[in-house]
Give the backbone structure.
Amino acid sequence: MEAKWLDLGPTTQIEAGMAATLPVIGGEEIAVFHTMRGEFYALVNKCPHRQGPLSQGIVHGDSVTCPLHNWRISLKSGQVLGDDEGCVPTIPLKIDCGRIYLLREAVVAPRPADGPAAEPQAA
Ligand code: FES
């Protein structure tokens, strides 16, 4: 089965060193990060320590520092760095023709037996 990608719009909407959030109905909010090196990553927007909003953290290199208690998290792997332990789910992301795409099946929750599929909302 061919992968389906969700178009989030142009890369220019997220400044380097910043992040944007993507609310998902029935799912976890997603944070999309743009590093100073021009790379993009997506993680569930919840620190594994106490659910701090990683999108409000400081992006440096390919990691983000949580705004609540300063845990550092790899944007590539979602792993907590340093002496602390934990992991944040990563979301497959690609850039094509200057637009950001997330793997749809990683963003949209499976359809429950008696309800509609959870759809992401524009940020
Ligand atoms: S909630 Fe992120 S370090 Fe505590």
